[in-house]
Amino acid sequence: MIKLNKIGRWVQFADPIDVRLEKVIDKTLSYTKAGSQFLPNPLWGQVHLYNKSKRAFPVGLFSLIIPVLNSWCNQYEDEWQFSIPKQYTQLQVQLSSLRDYQIEAFNAFWKNQGGLISLPTSAGKTRITERIIASFPEGKILVVCPTKEIIRQWKEELGCMIEYKDIRVATYQKLYREVAEDKEPFKQYNLVVWDECHHCSANSLYKIGLACSNAIMLGLTATEKRMDGAEMKIQAILGDIIYKVSIQDLVKAGYIVQGEVHIINVPKYKARLDEDYRDIYNNAIVNNNERNNKIVNIAFEEYINGTIMIMCKQIKQAQIIYNMLKKDAIEEYRDRIIYVDGKSKDRGKKFQDILDGKYDIIVCTKVYGEGISIPRLKTMILASGGKSSTEVIQTTGRMLRLFLDKEVAKIYDFRDSGILGRHFRERIKIYKENGFEVVENENV
Asked: Are the CB atoms for 159 and 217 separated by under 8 Å?
C-alpha cells in the first residue's frame, strides 16, 4: 500500500517508494524553462517540483500524480491511499446579482475546494470572489494583489465585509518581505485569493504560497498561460483550472464589447551590426520621433470619441509622449492629459480622477497594465511593442468593459520591423486567437 498524507502545502509519501516510481514522478513534475537552450548548461533550465529528500510535492500537482499512481498500481497489483484534507461547507448566500457564468464559477470553487478561475479581463472575477468570500464559513482570509490600485478596487468591492470577515488585502511585495522574516503568521489563513495569479510562478510568490500551509487557494487570471512555460509552478500553488470562459463567449453573450485592432505602419528600422536588442528597442521605439509623432496624432484624433490610454513599457518613452502631447495640445485642453507611472505621487487621487472622467488622455507605464478597471476607456494605443501573450491580453482586456455608448474597443498597434517585427507578428497571432478584428490603417 502506497500511503500519501497532506502536510501543509505538500503531499508526502509516508514511506520510501520504489526508485522506478520516483523517477516517473520526478519527470512528471518537471518542466524546462523557455530559452534554456541558450544557457551555458541547458540543465540549469530544468525545474523539478518533486522534493526527493522529503518524498513530497506541492499539493496543487496532485491531479498530475493520480494517473501515475493508478498506472503503477495496475501494473504491480498495488494500491494507493490519500488522506483527504479538511473540506469546508459553504454558507448560503444570495447569487442573484451574478451572471450565469459567474454562478458556474462560484459553484466550481466549492465543488473543487479551490483552484484557478480563468476569465477574460472585464468578466467580473472580483464580483465572483466577493460572493465566495461571503460564503466562506470561518477563519482569516488573505487577498494578494500586484499593485496599490488593485488593492483599492478590492477594498471597494468587499466594503464592510473586510472587518467582519477578518480579511487582509496586501501587495505581493509587502507579503514577500514579511514571509522572508517569519513564515509562521501565514499559517493562520484559511482562504487565500490570488489576483492576477499568473505571477505565482515567481519565486517570491511561490514562497508566499507554500507558507500559507492551511489555506484553500483561489487563483484569478485572464492569462493562465505563460511565455516561460512555468504553468506547472502556478498549478503547484493553486491547483487545477476549475473554470474557464473565453473572450468571444462573453462578447457573443453581450457582457463585454469586441476588440478592434488597428495596425499602423511605421518606416522600417535598419539595425547596425553592432547594435544589441536594447539599442534596437531604444532607437526603433523609445526615441523614434516619427513613431512617437504618430502616437500623438492618433491620440488627438481619437480623444473626441472617449477616454484614451497610451501604454508604455519604459518611463522614458512615456515621458517623451506626454511632453509632446502637452506641447502640441491647445492651451485649454492641456489639463485633460495626465501621466502616471509607478513612482507618481498621489496615485490614488489620480486614479480616482481618471475614473471620474477628469482626463481624456492617460499616458502610463505598466502600473496600469493589469488588474485595474476603467470602464470609460474606449481607445488604447500600445506604444511599446513586446510579444508576451500575458501582457497583451492583460493590457487590451482593460478595454472590453461595457460603458454607456461604447460599441467596440479600439486598439492601435504598430507594424515594427526586424526582431521587433517578429514580436509584432506574435501580437497579431494573439489578437486573432482571441477573436479580435484586425484592421489595416494604410493612411495613418
From this structure: no
- Supply the pTM of this predicted model: 0.86
Here the cell at position 272 is: 547596425
Nearest to 195 by CA among 365, 380, 394, 353: 394
Torsion angle, alpha carbons of 422, 426, 428, 433, to 10: 160
The closest alpha carbon to 115, from 235, 222, 247, belongs to 235
What are the grid coordinates assigned to 315, written together?
A: 518611463
Q: Does domain 257-441 have CATH number 3.90.70.10?
A: no
In which band, very low, low, confident or very high, does the pLDDT at 226 lie, cut at 50, 70 and 90?
low
Backbone angles phi, psi at 103, to 5 degrees: -65, -40
> Who's near 182: CB < 8 A, 6+ residues apart?
none
Please name the amino acid found at residue 358. Answer: K
- Supply the pLDDT for residue 443: 53
- CATH tag for 100-249 (out of 3.40.50.1580, 3.30.360.10, 3.40.50.300, 3.40.50.150): 3.40.50.300
Block residue for cell numbers 468570500: 133
Grid coordinates standing for 350?
Answer: 489620480
Task: Give pLDDT tens digits for 228-250.
Answer: 668 899 999 999 999 999 999 99
* The C-alpha cell that represents 48 in the structure block: 523539478
The closest alpha carbon to 282, from 273, 295, 269, 294, belongs to: 269
The answer for residues whose C-beta is within 8 angstroms of residue 116's C-beta and 6 or more apart is 197, 218, 219, 220, 221, 224, 234, 235, 238, 239, 240, 241, 242
